[in-house]
């Protein structure tokens, strides 16, 4: 009896949905393709031998040895950029599966997807909570002897750092020089 009642209720619901032109839908899950290429930054060990004697071509051959081939099916080169000063490695167009296979090659260290990062501030000490009187900055000789990398992204005239709220207008005789 319970089976018949359940079937009747389901039939009524289906008829109701059919007559009201309502459809049931399930949320779609994102589709990911395993053969979709992304640019990866690949870190590898320095090749064997005296690295200062290696030419750019020697390094590129070493880096290419980690790739399944030099070009994609489209004919586009896989290698995007090579690195040799701050790190040993390269940027290349790869699939997730190709990176997994690369992990077993001797000399491979790690790889990560290349993604852009945007500068967040032009006032780094303030962002980091550093002040000259009462902070770790003062106790650490204000960074003396520390090497700091500089990211020069150029000038963006509409950046908030160039805003002039609260400043008076320029003098009438000023001609922009």
TrEMBL record:
Signal sequence region: 1-25
A Gene Ontology molecular function term of the record: serine-type endopeptidase activity
Domain Inhibitor I9, chain residue ranges per copy: 39-119
Keywords, ordered alphabetically: Hydrolase, Signal
Membrane-traversing stretches: none
Single GO biological process annotation from the record: proteolysis
PROSITE patterns: SUBTILASE, SUBTILASE_ASP
InterPro entries named in the record: Peptidase_S8/S53_dom_sf (IPR036852), Peptidase_S8_Asp-AS (IPR023827), S8pro/Inhibitor_I9 (IPR010259), S8pro/Inhibitor_I9_sf (IPR037045), SBT (IPR045051)
Record flagged with keyword Signal: yes
Gene3D superfamilies registered for this protein in UniProt: Peptidase S8 propeptide/proteinase inhibitor I9, Peptidase S8/S53 domain
Membership in a protein family: Belongs to the peptidase S8 family.
Record-given protein name: Inhibitor I9 domain-containing protein
Source organism of the structure: Dendrobium nobile (Orchid)
